[in-house]
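Table S2 (continued). Query chain:
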Amino acid sequence: ADSTLYLVLVIKGHDSERMSTPGGASIPPEQLKARYIGTGHADITKHEWITNQHRDTYASHVGHYDQLSYYAVAQNDSIARVRLQFLEKIYQPCGVPPAKKDSA
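Corresponding output:
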């Protein structure tokens, strides 16, 4: 016989659209989207979404010294030079945005 114990959790009334604060009060989705720009919205384009992802990634690398030093060693550059490169890439990480189509 198998002695593995299986535990099943059933969460009633779970709302996947909401997060909660440390005190337990829920935060409405509109406030979340206002607070965290990268969460997007219904009209976000693919370019805007991927640009937000790249900016978040570069900001994380710049903010975490260990990651920054890892990239510096891998590229055989100084940490300051790699930080500058990442900060410059944050401006337009995916290139120039495509031209918008007029729907008139």
